[in-house]
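RESIDUES AND SHAPES:
===
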Amino acid sequence: MIRLATIDDQSALVRLCKKDAWDGTTILSAFQSKCADVYNADWQYCDIWMGTSDAQNKNAQYVLCRLGQTFHIVGKPHSKQRWEELYSFLSMQAPKSKLIADSQMIAQYQERFPSPACKLPHPNQSIPFPRMISTRLPEAMEENSVQESTSLFSIYDILASAKPEILKRVSRDEYTARMLFSKRGGAKFFEIPGEDGAPVCVGAILLPDEGDYGLIFNICTLPEHRGKGYARKMVTRLCMEAYLQGKTPVLDCAETQLEQYYRHLGFQKVSYWDTAYPAGYADIVS
C-alpha cells in the first residue's frame, strides 16, 4: 500500500534514504522541512509517501516524495502488485508530473510500463546524466569571495537571467517560497558579489541533519561573468560546508559535458539519473 509518511516513519525513511546519496538526500531534506512546518504552509508543494508491503508488519519498501510536480523515489517495489500500485498512483497525479530517480530504477519502471512515444522537452532529456561524488577535499583558493546569500530574490534573478525558461515555469515569489522550504530542510545558499556588490554567481547545498551527504545544486553564473573561475570558487565553498559537517559532497550533472569539469574539482561519476515522463507530457508543457 501507499500512504502518507508520518513522524513515526522517521527511522524507516532514514534507513531507505541513506542508501541513496542523491534522491535520498533530497527526500531527507524535504522530510526535515515538513516536520518543521508547524503551520502546514507548504502542504501544496510537498508530500511524502511510504510504499509498504501487505504483510502483517507492513515493511517499508520505498519512499516517494513530491516536490512541486517532480517526484523522487528511493527504494523500489518488491513485487508485481506493488509495481502496479506505484504506476497507478503516479498515473493519477497531475499530467505535468515527472519521476526522477537512479537510471536503473527508471529503466525498470519504463520496462514494466512502456508509455506511448511522446516528444520530450528537448533531445538531451532521453540521455541519463551522471551522478557524482567528491573523492577529495578541494584545493583551497587564495581568495574566496563566496558568502552566504543576503537575498533569496537575487538567486532567482540570476537563475532566470541564465535560464530564461524558468520565468515560464515559476514566479519569483513562488521560487523564493521553495527556497525557504529548502532552508528549513538544511539548505544553505551562497553568492559571489561582483565589482558593484550585486551577485554574479550563486550556488546551494542541501545538508539535512539525518543525512550523510551534502547535495550541491543551482550552481549558476551570469553569462557575462563566465570564464572567471566563479563556479570553481562556489563549488569549493560548498564542498567545504559539507566536509565541515562531516558529510560527503555529491551532485547531479544537468548536462553530460559537465562531468569532465567536476572531475577536475575532485568528483567521480558513480551512477546516472534519469527521468520518466508520462505520455503526453510534451504536449502539455509546450
Summary: The first helix runs from residue 10 to 17. The two ends are 34 Å apart (CA to CA).
